[in-house]
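Progress note, project year one: complex with zinc ion.
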Amino acid sequence: MGFNYSMEEDNDYNDFLQSLIDNGHLEGAAEGITKKVIVEGIDSLSSKQKWTFQKNVGEYITVECTRGGCDIPWSEMYEAYDNGGMCNWCAHMDTKDD
Ligand SMILES: [Zn+2]
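Model obtained:
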């Protein structure tokens, strides 16, 4: 514990995890573990489950926007994966440039 984040961010994070499940990116153990994180939080996982969770979900997390180096909020994380790693604003600007 000790990671202090707001309820709103928590919901956005859960929405991101739910998007991965809904779009069929996770399967088997990874899907089950991710569902557990949504309901019970990451602290409910064993260290082995955390490893599986981070390994599978980590593939879909963009740390930095590829266009502007911006921080990507959880609410835009799935879209960022989908559009090649850009935040909403940059994705929008990029479309305008074309
Ligand atoms: Zn950006």
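The helical segments are 7-22, 29-40, 47-57, 74-82, 88-97.
The chain has a mean pLDDT of 90.
No further modelling is planned for this target in the current period.
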